[in-house]
Amino acid sequence: MNADMLYEELEVATAARSIAACYWRFHLGAGAPESVEHVIVPDGTTSLSVAVSPMGASPLLCAGPTRAAHVVQVHAGVFYGGVRLTPAAGAALLGVDGPSLRGRIGPWLGGDNQLGGLACALVELARTGATGPADAVLSELAIGVRLDPAAASVAQDLIDKGGRGRIGDLAGETGLSERQLRRRFFEAVGLTPKEFAGIRRLREACILAAADHETWATAAAAADYADQAHLSRDVRTAFAQTPRRVARYLRRIEHRFVA
Known about the structure:
Elements: E1 5-10, E2 20-28, E3 35-40, E4 47-53, E5 56-57, E6 61-63, E7 70-75, E8 79-85, H1 89-94, H2 98-101, E9 105-107, H3 113-128, H4 132-144, H5 149-160, H6 167-174, H7 178-189, H8 193-209, H9 216-222, H10 228-239, H11 243-250, E10 253-256
Parallel strand pairs: 1-10
Antiparallel strand pairs: 1-2, 2-8, 3-7, 4-5, 4-6, 4-8, 6-9
């Protein structure tokens, strides 16, 4: 793969896994342009991150759940690092409701000293890849965060199954009606269960399409889309670009996912 960007994920300590799914780092490679319009594949979660340059670090940044790709300008010589929160944890950790995070991207100006400590820990992560400082902060934060158990359980189930599964069946497993689950899930996550499932399935297809030997047709089949046309419509809706252009861009990035 001839990649000029690197995206990698790193594991979170066990004590923090109720609120944090993984850490991530991103930067442009030596062969990349000075500046790139970076397209982020939606995953249905909230990320907290920092950008670190030779001039210093940014404030804590927040990218909320969205059905459409976030597009940000990234620059050579800047290292980006963050934590991807579990779906029901973003709002609970930040002290807001899920819908207020929907589509949000920019500096997070609220918070307490612990979030300030998290920002400092993420600076170290971005610079060196060291996860220990962030593990310590997030493990402490996790003690005080109360998640909606039904929303957290259904979200994890949908993640594990790549967005597959009937929402009514998942609601039944939690003892809720489908309507009750929809309300609680939306309040906790900022997306409906159906929206979240669609985003996770699209993410799986995009990961497959980013591989050099894969096509959108094989990605559609592997992700259980009815046909390639259905996947193509979802890609165009999320990225406002053709599937071919999206695949070409994703293949410029070397992806190292947590197993």
